Amino acid sequence: MNYVNINGKIQAADKAMLPVDNGAFRYGYGLFETMLVQNGAIKLLPYHMERLFAGMQQLSFDIPSLMRPESLTQQIINTVKKNDLLHLCRVRLQVYAGGGGMFGQDATKPGYLIECFELNEEAIAFNENGLTLGIAEGLNKSNDSLANLKSCNALIYAMAARQAKANKWNDALICNTEGNIIESTIANIFWIKAGKIYTPPLSEGCIAGIMRKHLMATFSVTEEPLTHDTLLQADEVFLTNAIRRIRWVGSIGNKQYFNTAIRSLLSKLV
């Protein structure tokens, strides 16, 4: 049986209930973190907690004493143990706004939900077959003050994912309102040209990714807007997220990409 954790109470997933008027359901008012647990350890935990609590502060949540990094970490481990997934799993921690209307007194009182999903080793291994990507059409993300948050308002990503499925791509790239490419539906994007690593700056509107931050702390990375022409001229392209780390992009449209430098990066990544 699968178990979830709602506000510190672990219960069977098929019996669990959330209030129907919670802010994430009604307005997309909430945040989430997707974390990799391997051999009992939450990978890149400090980065996850830093981003989560910075986002909660930005969304004006009133953070209760029982919802602190240390207590949330323990609740995650307890939930993973209950599901017998300490060896390898994906954890989704969602923080949602309280019930009632947007101006209600409970709107800024958060709750949380922890879910666990089993992974196999192949899911986190280097993809020997390069990803096939396309660029989503008719969807342009605003680079406003909320753009970098990993929020529950994910409609643009859901619709881009539908385009990817319809076109038989592995993922879809998303552009901002200026027409520059900023990310995929589930990952940040990097490219390599003449041995240098590049990624779009946060000011372009991409999610402030955890693996993005880790790579930028580990390697020399230049932040630069990604135009369509730049993408065509790149030697190698890869996507990053906290679960799959680095994934090689083999093609975008008719353009083919190599993976020599990407393999070297992955071998050096802790």
The number of strands is: 15
Order of helices and strands: EEHEEHHEEHEHEEEEHEHEEEH
How many helices? The count is 8
Structural class: alpha+beta
CATH topology term of the largest domain: D-amino Acid Aminotransferase, Chain A, domain 2
Largest sheet: 9 strands, mixed
Report on this structure.
The protein has 270 residues and is of the alpha+beta class. It folds into 2 domains: 3-124, Aminotransferase class 4, branched-chain amino acid transferase, N-terminal domain (D-amino Acid Aminotransferase, Chain A, domain 1); 131-268, D-amino Acid Aminotransferase, Chain A, domain 2 (Alpha-Beta Barrel), CATH 3.20.10.10. Helices cover 27% and strands 32% of the residues. It has helices at residues 23-27, 45-58, 69-82, 121-124, 155-167, 210-218, 228-233, 260-268; strands spanning 3-6, 9-12, 30-38, 41-42, 88-96, 111-118, 131-141, 171-176, 181-184, 188-193, 196-199, 221-223, 236-241, 245-252, 255-256. Strand 7 (131-141), helix 5 and strand 8 form a beta-alpha-beta unit.
